[in-house]
Amino acid sequence: MGAEQAWLLAAIPGGMFFVIAMIGRWLPRQADWLGILTIATTFALFFVVLVDFLGTGDGLGPITNSMSWTEIGGFQLDMGIFVDPITIVMLGVITAVALMVNIFSVGYMKGEPRYFWYFALLQGFAASMILLVMADNLLLVYVAWELVGVCSFLLIGFYWERRSAIEAAKKAFITTRVGDVGLLIGIILLWREAGTFNISEIIAFAQDGGYGSTYLFVASFAVFLGAIGKSAQVPFHVWLPDAMEGPTPVSALIHAATMVVAGVYLVARLLPVFEIPEGMMLIITIVGLVTALMTGVIAIAQTDIKKVLAYSTVGQLGFMFIALGAGYPDVAMLHLMTHAFFKALLFLGSGSVILATHHNQEMDKLGGMWRKMPITGTTFLIGSLALAGLPPLAGFWSKDEIWVVTEGAWGAWATILFGVAAVLTAFYTTRLFIRTFMGNPQDEHVYEHTHETGPVMWAPLVFLGVLAVVSGFVIFNEVGTALGFPGGFTEFIFLDEPHVYSIHWDFAAASLAAAVIGIFVGAWMYWGGRLDRATAFANWQPGLFDVARNKFYWDDLYQAGVDRGLLGFSYVVSWFDRYAVNDTGVDGSAQTTGYAGFILKHIQTGKVPNYAMGIAIGVIVLTIAGMAARG
Amino acid sequence: MELSLVLFLPAAAGVVALLLPAAQEQLARWVALAGSGAAFVLSLVLFFRFDNAAEGYQFTERHTWVSVGDFNLQYYIGVDGLSMPLVLLTTFLTVASVLVSFNITMRPRLYFASLLVLATSVIGVFVALDFLLFFLMWELELFPMFLLIAIWGSGRKEYAATKFVLYTIFGSALMLVSILVLAFDQGTFDIELLTQAEFQDTIIPLNLVFLLLMAGFAIKLPVVPFHTWLPDAHTNAPTAVSVMLAGVLLKMGGYGMIRMGVGILPEQAANWDIWIAGLGAFSVLYGAFITLRQTDVKRLVAYSSVSHMGLVLLGVAALGDTGLTGATYQMVAHGLITGLLFVLIGLMYDRTHTREISQLGGLARQMPLLATGLVFAGFGSLGLPAMAGFIAEITVFIGAFERFEWLTLLAILGVVLSAGYVLWMLQRVVFGPVRHEWDELTDQRAWWEHTTVAALAAVIVLFGVFPSILMDMINPAMEAVAARVVL
Fold it and tell me: What does the angle CA A196 – CA A202 – CA A204 come to, to the nearest 5 degrees?
């Protein structure tokens, strides 16, 4: 098998989805082992693809394998794969995290109803996500894009008996679908001028100046709407925090490491197109910065550990968009990879805490967990420090690099804003860790019943913990080369625009300072489980605190928009349809006809004298008229 | 001969069912299953024998029926790439309708006879190549429909049945005028000849003829504002009739628009295309907005049909082969997906005896299979890829976008609204807190329930994953239609 057969990576879990969904219920252990086996196979095949890809040696050009799906007169739909360095990175991240999540789930989901269905959905998701990053044409991307959306819907709503879970699932699907409309329109616009859905051909067409400038701006902006819908950027970010209603391993896989980065992936893939129209890169940067800053503030005011991590994820995705806006897909992909590992680690770690405390995820009732759960606590600390951006952990390298390229592209204002976001990140991460794992227990009852989770759960934490430490090192060309990437990781990602990494001591120092400031302030405020300083701060600026705690009122705004705007308008239309169109128009005309018949029937009395009288009058009238006419 | 068998086998079985002795009336369902099943198998054979490369009509049969002066009323039938999929859809959904009616105990002989005569008349509409035969079949369909809704329906069933019949007849009257005008001009009712004809001096202007013709089809499709019979008919009809109504009867309108409207009067179609496209986009959004407010599951699906049929209209208005192919694909896809929705809602109604969304909820606990089916069909309805509806929608959008950019963009917005009403319905019906008043109810259990749901679901996926099966058949026929349109 070579890279041409990489479609097997999607086909195998795709097939297993059906197998487990249909007969998993009756298999031993409801087929959880089959799920792990499937993903493990996929993970192993990833290395086969990787080795084959690196071994081709012809400058790492993309490997394609395509066939016609259907032809409709003038246009053709293809089904094909496209394996290039970006795909390789995505495949590695997806299969590695999916494997860890599948293993972790055996412990976390033990005893849950519909256990087999959960594992079936994990396979279905993996298949769709792998298809998404391998698809060689935009329509197939859209297909996979929607399929991951459905898997996400079904997994967020896995506990569908809870109204909040199914509401969150619906919100996630519909919010992203608003963006998807943009994506579909963008795809159709790109297709119409280029005459193809093929990504490479569209890029080539755009670079040859095939699209008009305004036209391309509209098209790429429409695609961008789809990207920020899926990747939960402002103003579409509202669905992701709610999506935490799903089982926690799902949050780790779908809502941190893989599906939510689909938007980043798509923009990275199409970046040569986005670079052409004027202003597009600035829009990407601004969206990323606004998202990163706003969610940093919101995360500070949240007390649900998964909500903190969710807002953190949104913010980190914002960082990736900032890197894209600066024109560096390789940097975005680097942060995508390191973030996938440390954020999956953090989510799985929070899942470990939640399970150990019998479904408690409120910081107000946690505290001191490190003593009870040493492995979870230690790995969570590693993940937190990576997120905060402390060297030499993975997050430091990628975040630092984003900062460097942001400065290069936009100058001082973006640099400063990014720095603020970095400090905020370090601060809320510290708060999260201290309030959950350190200090005195807030709730003795919860604390007493807590114990470390089993190896099926902490082993994935350790694996991801190691990656959270080392995965950033690929940035060094020596490491990348040693791993087999010709020219190192950075050249590997984008051959046509090699971007040489060198250590910028000034940025490294600033980056370290940002992390340390955030961590220090966080520690000063919350150390030892104290809350008085935080309370004092909240009382000092109550308005600001309310804004943060209420998530800048985005949800309220949208809810009002849907309730009053959309549903109100629908009410008017329905009323019009019922009373104006149907009752007045349709039934009204029927009643008019009936009423006319009711009146006219009086002419038909059935009495001979009446008719005779009518005849007589008729004869007289006609005679007079005839004589008058004759003159 | 084979096509005639497909056409008349259902009706023949219906007559047999009607003639069964009263003591044996429970046999009627088996007779109906045999008749509809045979017609389905035979049409499947024809489907595979159909030559996609050949031009014109296939499996044709022509006999002179009545001859008056210059006029011949012919029995002339045949299929092309447009009608073959619709015939197969009809025979398939007829079997499904018979199966979901297996628990009918009230006057089963008349019931199944009506259902089967209905099937024959709809097949007749799709295969007729003589305009009078077409009209005959078009009208024949009303009689069994009236009985089915008025006798086996629920709620305001007499009102709904009468409204349905009167509305359709109103449209047929307009249609008949244009049929006669066209036929008198050319001296023939032969659709094949009329399609190639150059009309000289018709009694009334051809633009008006086109509009009268389209009015009849627009009522059937239905197009806003002629749609209000649909929710009433659906809500009050028994399950099988809803399946037939949404699945194939609406498609008579879309079929007529393509075969007669665009096929016979392409020039006039081009004159009115922007208006048709406008109505199409309007129907998509108008139907979707109203769907958002529905509280009765059947009514909700009925209004979603209005929205989905707007896409057919949009595809037709594009007048290119892509748009027309998309419109046809949408007819098949909608027939299957909405057919499945009505089957499942019917099976749930058999158990809960309510269609009020506010009274349902959490049914995934008591009826996991039916719930899974409803979620599946719901996602089909909102155009999920890997299901037939997605292929149809994308083809319509692409076909229409080339001609009507803004109207197509508006119609695409309907995609969000459809996600809204489908998920809202699923949330309230299938998911949410478990209601213990339904604890006694059983899940999908009988073999005929399993068969119907599984078969429909499988075909929806089949046409979503392997669109070429249908595309390669539909597209050449649509290229032939589009070739005569001069824009």
Answer: 130
Q: Tokens 């297909």, residue?
A: A143
Q: Which residue of B has its CA nearest to A143?
A: B385
The mean pLDDT of chain A is 90
Task: Tell me the C-alpha to C-alpha distance, in Å, between residue A282 and each of A206, A286, A499.
Answer: 19, 6, 20
Beta strands in A39-105 (DSSP E): 63-72, 75-83
Confidence tier at A57 by pLDDT (50, 70, 90)? low
What does the pLDDT look like over B135-180, one tens digit per residue? 999 999 999 999 999 999 998 999 999 999 999 999 999 999 999 9
Here the ipTM equals 0.95
Determine the 3-state secondary structure of B61 from DSSP: strand
In this structure, the number of other CB atoms found within 10 A of the CB of residue A7 comes to: 18
What is the C-alpha to C-alpha distance for residues A20 and A31, in angstroms, rounded to an integer? 7
Which of B167, B397, B413 is nearest residue A188 as measured by Cβ atoms?
B397
Nearest by CB to B386, from A147, A170, A573: name it.
A147
Nearest-by-Cβ selection for B292 from A73, A177, A567:
A567
CB-CB neighbours of B63 under 10 Å: 10
Distance separating alpha carbons of residues B49 and B58, to the nearest angstrom: 10
In whole numbers, what is the pLDDT of chain B averaged over residues? 94
Q: Are A485 and A492 in contact (CB under 8 A)?
A: yes
Position A77 scores a pLDDT of: 85
Q: Which of B224, B234, B289 to mutate to test the interface with A (most CBs of A within 10 A)?
A: B289
Q: Is A629 exposed, middle or buried (0-12, 13-18, 19+ CB in 10 A)?
A: exposed
Residue identified by tokens 């009382």 is A539
Interatomic CA distance for residues A529 and A364, integer angstroms = 10
Buried b (16+ CB within 10 A) or exposed e, A424-447: bbbbbbbbbbbbbbbbebbeeebb
Residue in B391, B383, B374 with CA at minimum distance from that of residue B419: B383
pTM of the model: 0.94
Which residues of chain A neighbour B412 with C-beta distances below 8 Å? Answer: 181, 184-185
At B73, which helix (H) or strand (E)?
strand B71-79
- Given phi > 0 = left and psi -120 to 50 = alpha, else beta, which region is A552? left
Q: Residues of A with CB below 8 A from B427's CB?
A: 166-167, 170
Which candidate in A17, A25, A68, A72 is best for mutational testing of the B interface (most B CBs within 10 A)?
A72
- Three-state DSSP class for residue B264: helix
User: According to the model, what pLDDT value does residue A495 have?
Assistant: 46
Which residue does chain B place closest to A587, by CA atoms? Answer: B163
* Residue bearing tokens 């989905």: B308
**Percent of chain B with pLDDT strictly greater than 90:** 89
The crossing angle, in degrees rounded to 10, of helices B321-352 and B388-401 is 140
